[in-house]
Every structure is written in structure tokens, then in C-alpha cells.
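sry for the spam today, last one i promise. C-alpha cells for design, 391 residues
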């Protein structure tokens, strides 16, 4: 009897499975500097495949004169592992300001071979900046309450007096009384917008389909302030619902898309806004007053190819009254930060010329957890999107 020949698909080794399960980029470097192997996280970080990396040496992927190359030489000389913190590996291809912690170690079984592990500092830095955003929101809350009480009432009297003077004023003086009324109205409008920050009432939240929200915002933008801008979408269709208030999410993304449209307004038909959604497990946020950490696996981005945010404004971009617009109030992004904070999420901006990204991380809807909260009914279907006021 002839032997039976069975065909088996190649089996992935256990070590490869483990490496690919790691969230941190890991690479093995040969004595001549060539990249022998890399896990899936490294492919994502350098935005290229392992096969392509294996045809290159490490110095082709990292910035010229990178400290990583020096650390590898040091490990080869001493035979001891080293760590280095807050090293920028950003390049024009993968984006600037990609700060990582480096862990470089020798491979004892293979003399001259080095293992490099990268740990991005992005999430840790987001947590620190998020605390700053929350402090700024609390400051605006107190300021809004003070302004509403101390400014709106006197302004009403000033406007009334100007209207009385207008009745007996000459045509030349009426221009001045109209100016007084217009400026009083403008200040009242500004105070009204700031009063939103003082509203601490809980908002009803439930399962929201983020793609319905983004499509609604895109339609609003294309029918108005962004009618000449090209929109592209990169959505994860399997994304679960987000735990949120739909109207407030519309306000958040309408503000971000409006900012992006203004950033590319001078580019004509070359201006582009990209909306993306993705599932990013492993991101958790410690919330004051709670022992457990909140999972933030849902990532939503608004990207544009405009000139970018000035470096001096970037650290304080979500603070009130910080703006790049000559006539802007600087409250739009502060409102975005407040709403995202109220939802237990994170908002962050990464910017360089032709590549600005506003990234929001939010918790997903959990029906079993919602059942224990009053006013938030599990299984409530998302309501139809409706237009929100632009900010």
C-alpha cells in the first residue's frame, strides 16, 4: 500500500505568535546592521512590511545619527542591555515627533545580534496632558459662571442706554450708538457660549453609531463651510457602538471638521480631510475617584493636510482663548476637550506641515454595565442624527 501523503499548511512558531501578540515593536538586528526579523507592531510603527525591512539596514529606517544606532554599538561592545528614554525616531515617512523608550539587548545565542524593543510614549504623554485639559475646563467653568453674573446684567443696561441715545442722536452719532449695541451683543454671545462650560448636569448617554455621526457631520460640512474640500473615509465597519451622547458627539466632530476645513481653505482643490475609525485595545485611563481604569478602545480621527499648528501653540491648544484665527474666540477646542472629558475619553492633537491629526479615544458601549446606571438605558437604539450648532 502506497503511503498517504498529507499536505499541511505551514505552522507559525510559538515564538512568532508571542512576538506578534506584543503591542510594542520588536526587531532583531544582524551584526552588519541588517534587519533580520520584526513583529507586526514594528511593521505598524515603521509603516512597512517585514519583508521590506529585511532588505534594509536599520539606519535606513531611523533618523540620521539616531541615538539608537549608538546604543546598538554600545551593547555589542559591552554585552550588556541598555535602556534609553524619550528618543525621537520620527522621520518624514512615518511622521515627526515619534518619541519612544528604547530597550536594546544582546542575543546570547547569536553573538553580534541585537534585539531592539520600542515603547511609544504617546499614550503616557496623553494621560499627563489630559489632566491639564481637565484643569483648564474647570477654570473655564468658574470663569463662565462669574462672567454670566458680573457682565451680562451691566451689558443689558449699556445696550438699553445706547438705544435711548440713538433716538435723539444725529446720523453721525447713530453710527456710534449702533457700534455700542453691536459690541454689547457680541460680548453677550461670547458669554453665552462660555456658559456651556458651567453646565455640570449629567447628559443622557447610550449606544451611538459613530459612523452615522461622522457621515452626518460630513454632509453638513460639504453643504456649507467645506463644500470645496475633498473628504475621504477609512472606517472599521465592525466597530462596536460608543458610549456617548449623540448630539454632543456631533458638536465635537463638527468643531474639528470646521477647524480642518479652515486649515485647508487656502489650498483650493488640494485640501483634504480624512475621517478614520479604528479599534485600539490596550488603552486604559485612570479616572479620579474610581479604583478601576476605564478602557478606551475606540479611536476616531480627523486629519487634514493643511499647514499644521504652530509649535508654540500645540501644548496649550485645548486651553480656552488659544486660537490661530484672527477673529476666533478660542473656545471651540476647549469645548471639544470638555465634552470628551465628560465622556471619560481623551482628545489629542499631533501636527506637522501637511499632516495634522486630532485623535479621540472613547469607551465603547457595554449593555451589562449600563443597566446599573439610572437614566442610561441599555439597548436604547441610537437616535437619528440632527444638526448641531457650529462652534
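last one done:
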Amino acid at each position: 500500500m502506497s503511503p498517504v501523503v498529507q499536505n499541511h499548511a505551514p505552522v507559525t512558531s510559538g515564538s512568532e505568535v508571542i512576538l506578534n501578540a506584543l503591542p510594542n515593536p520588536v526587531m532583531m538586528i544582524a551584526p552588519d546592521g541588517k534587519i533580520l526579523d520584526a513583529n507586526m507592531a514594528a511593521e505598524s510603527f515603521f509603516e512597512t512590511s517585514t519583508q521590506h525591512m529585511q532588505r534594509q539596514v536599520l539606519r535606513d529606517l531611523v533618523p540620521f545619527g539616531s541615538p539608537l544606532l549608538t546604543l546598538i554599538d554600545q551593547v555589542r561592545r559591552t554585552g550588556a542591555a541598555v535602556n534609553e528614554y524619550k528618543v525621537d525616531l520620527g522621520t518624514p515617512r512615518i511622521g515627526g515627533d515619534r518619541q519612544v523608550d528604547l530597550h536594546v539587548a544582546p542575543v546570547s545565542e547569536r553573538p553580534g545580534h541585537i534585539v531592539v524593543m520600542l515603547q511609544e510614549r504617546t499614550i503616557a504623554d496623553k494621560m499627563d496632558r489630559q489632566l491639564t485639559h481637565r484643569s483648564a475646563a474647570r477654570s473655564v467653568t468658574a470663569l463662565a459662571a462669574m462672567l454670566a453674573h458680573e457682565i451680562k446684567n451691566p451689558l443689558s443696561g449699556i445696550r438699553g442706554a445706547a438705544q435711548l441715545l440713538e433716538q435723539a442722536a444725529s446720523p453721525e452719532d447713530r453710527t456710534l450708538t449702533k457700534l455700542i449695541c453691536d459690541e454689547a451683543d457680541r460680548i453677550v454671545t461670547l458669554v453665552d457660549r462660555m456658559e456651556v462650560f458651567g453646565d455640570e448636569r449629567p447628559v443622557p448617554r447610550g449606544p451611538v453609531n459613530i459612523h452615522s455621526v461622522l457621515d452626518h457631520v460630513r454632509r453638513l460640512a460639504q453643504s456649507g463651510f467645506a463644500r470645496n474640500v475633498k473628504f475621504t473615509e477609512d472606517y472599521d465597519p465592525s466597530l462596536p457602538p460608543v458610549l456617548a451622547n449623540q448630539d454632543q458627539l456631533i458638536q465635537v466632530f463638527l468643531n474639528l471638521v470646521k477647524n480642518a476645513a479652515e486649515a485647508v481653505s487656502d489650498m483650493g482643490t488640494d485640501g483634504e480631510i480624512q475621517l478614520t475609525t479604528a479599534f485600539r485595545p490596550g488603552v486604559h485611563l485612570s479616572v479620579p475617584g474610581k479604583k478601576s481604569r476605564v478602557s478606551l478602545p475606540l479611536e476616531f480621527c480627523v486629519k487634514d493636510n493643511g499647514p499644521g499648528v504652530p509649535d508654540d501653540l500645540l501644548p496649550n491648544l485645548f486651553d480656552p482663548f488659544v486660537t490661530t484665527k484672527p477673529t476666533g474666540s478660542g473656545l471651540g477646542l476647549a469645548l471639544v476637550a470638555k465634552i470628551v472629558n465628560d465622556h471619560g475619553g481623551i482628545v489629542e492633537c499631533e501636527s506637522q506641515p501637511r499632516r495634522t491629526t486630532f485623535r479621540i479615544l472613547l469607551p465603547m458601549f457595554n449593555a451589562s454595565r449600563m443597566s446599573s446606571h439610572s437614566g442610561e438605558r441599555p439597548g436604547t437604539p441610537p437616535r437619528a442624527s440632527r444638526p448641531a450648532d457650529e462652534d
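The domain at 18-120 is CATH 3.30.450.20 (Beta-Lactamase). ok im logging off now
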